[in-house]
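Q: For a teaching session next week I want to show students how multiple molecules come together into a single three-dimensional assembly. I've collected the sequence lines for a complex. Could you give me the predicted structure tokens for the whole thing so I can convert them for display?
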Amino acid sequence: MTAETAQLSKSQLAFRVVHDRIVDGTYPPGQRLVLDAIGTELGMSVVPVREAIRRLEAEGLVTFERNVGARVAEIDEHEYWDTMETLSYVEGAAAHVAAPYVTAAAVARARELNAQLRGMLDDLDPVAFTRTNELLHRTLTDPCPNAHLRDLVDRGWRRLARLRASTFSFVPARAAESVDEHDRILDLVEAGADALEIELAVRAHRLATPNAYLRRAPQDGAAHRQEHR
Amino acid sequence: MTAETAQLSKSQLAFRVVHDRIVDGTYPPGQRLVLDAIGTELGMSVVPVREAIRRLEAEGLVTFERNVGARVAEIDEHEYWDTMETLSYVEGAAAHVAAPYVTAAAVARARELNAQLRGMLDDLDPVAFTRTNELLHRTLTDPCPNAHLRDLVDRGWRRLARLRASTFSFVPARAAESVDEHDRILDLVEAGADALEIELAVRAHRLATPNAYLRRAPQDGAAHRQEHR
DNA sequence: CATGCGGGCATCGTATACGATCCGTCGCGG
DNA sequence: CCGCGACGGATCGTATACGATGCCCGCATG
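A: Of course. Below is the structure for the complete assembly, covering every listed component.
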């Protein structure tokens, strides 16, 4: 393990550490990220930290202001919605392209994962549920031969990372619906349905979660959408 | 102007310079980018250059190998196809979301731009044509209220930047078809067509260009797609 | 007591310096 | 003549250092 981390450059190490801390909530939104302090803590100079922070900025996890510093990006409702909406399109696209390449074995694995999810419904552990959920989703997009598109899916997941843990906490009811939708999507894939049909199913599946969340707010999804920015 | 550039950090300056040089072909694909040399030329140290290169890496314009260095990313057929395909989905998505927000004035402006394009068909200047073409496309995606999605569209355009100049050189016939397709898309928008319908039209419009290019190759688009990676 | 100004502190931005790594080349031995 | 290993140059990775910038707090003044 040490040998493994050794061939990781320090800036990559810093990236991982800070990324993980943002994701797991150690660094809450709005937290200032002082380069020097982080560097000292990780036993390195500011230079690698700086590079790590800029990469995190490119991924939207931190905001950066010249001569002022970096802080963990705030997660307002807008950003949550925007990220989910974007991922719904991108993930759908990846599923579309991947559809012809999804093997029967992959579908079988996805079914198995979904069975696990169903088993977890009784007493819901949002974190574990979300992790397995991601594995299932990736089963459908990993076969996508378009590396660029897969990369966008990855970025979307990473952006959501620090929200995901709480997503199913917000709307527990979604978990059950979600499992059923997974099965319907897998039915489509198995039946060799039109790729566009699969795409739209995946898209709708993802959008259902933020919509369910917004349904609990005063205004419904559409109204929210209108006022939004 | 000097005042303007003055408040640009050196790393941002380096980013622009190198970016532009890659786009305009001064740095051809495969060209090595030596940090020290660039820094010296721009009158700065390697540190800002390094940061600029990493940003370019994040955008896919350069590849970076640890302890070896950076070079301008090669543009193989795969990457061209992947980028175009990805942009087709992302741009379609942005158009979908933007549809309700596209004003009559915006459509009018798009019509005007398309008229300009039509006028340019006689003797085709690929660079000018492509620039106006981008303006038209942006008319349809800029009203998209999802900033994240708009950002993905931007990234896609930037990735294509160094290809765009030559796109219509490759397949001059596409220019004429393209103008007609623009009008049909604008018809849909004007008629208040279903957003999904608009999305699919935009998607098909973009995919038509690489397909037209591939049609000139031995294998057709579908066959190419199959073998691809 | 409120408000504007100035100084000091925290932090960033960049330069310079040095060790680490890789690649090509030269020389030696088979 | 060919292969293999050691040396050297080129370039990257990071540390340290210092100037630049913005922010906060206290003081003076109306």
